Amino acid sequence: MNSIIWMALALVLVLEGLGPMLYPRMWRRMIAALIQLPDNTLRRFGGGLVVAGVVVYYMLSRTGG
């Protein structure tokens, strides 16, 4: 189980690194746009990502993936 968590973390790091590596200007503009958003909007966006992650995890765990 511990190795699965480390593999998941590694995959997150790879996916997070693709944006600045492949599209640095676009990534920088996106970060600048995020800075302008109100806190409540960022909280909703973050909450949506957490819910989506939990749903995907649940679906994968139910199918034995």
Q: Could you explain how this protein is built, in words?
A:
InterPro entries: DUF2065. The chain crosses the membrane at residues 6-23, 44-60. With 65 residues, the chain is mostly helical. The protein has a domain at 24-65. Helices cover 89% and strands 0% of the residues. It has three helices and no strands. The chain has helices at residues 2-22, 24-36, 39-62.
- Weakly predicted, low-confidence segments: none
Principal-axes shape call: flat
Largest sheet: none
What is the total tally of β strands? 0
User: Whole-number average pLDDT?
Assistant: 92
Q: Distance between the terminal alpha carbons, to the nearest Å?
A: 13 Å
Count of helical stretches:
3
Beta-strand proportion: under 5%
SSE topology string: HHH
Tell me the Rg in angstroms: 15 Å
Q: State the helical fraction.
A: over 70%
Q: Structural class per helix/strand content?
A: mainly alpha
Structure characteristics:
65 residues, mainly alpha, 3 helices, 0% strand
Quick recap:
The protein has 65 residues and is an all-alpha fold. It has a domain at 24-65.
Write the layout of secondary structure elements.
Layout: H1 2-22, H2 24-36, H3 39-62
